[in-house]
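Lab notes, practical 5.
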Amino acid sequence: MGRVIKPEKATSRRKIIEDAIKDLDPALREVYRSVLSEISDDALEDDEYFKRILKRIEEVKRSFI
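Output from the prediction step:
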């Protein structure tokens, strides 16, 4: 039997990502939002994938400091 997807988990992860990108340059924020809109809830359920997204956002933030 397949895994049950909890939409609230994906929604909260989307919120976490939105919070992480809020300090980026407006153009970069829009790029991340565009990419985020293409990511499925199933993908956001994957812990490793989610951590990679957050890590990449932090790397981008550091490169602009």
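Observations recorded by the TA: The two ends are 47 Å apart (CA to CA). Residues 7-63 form one domain.
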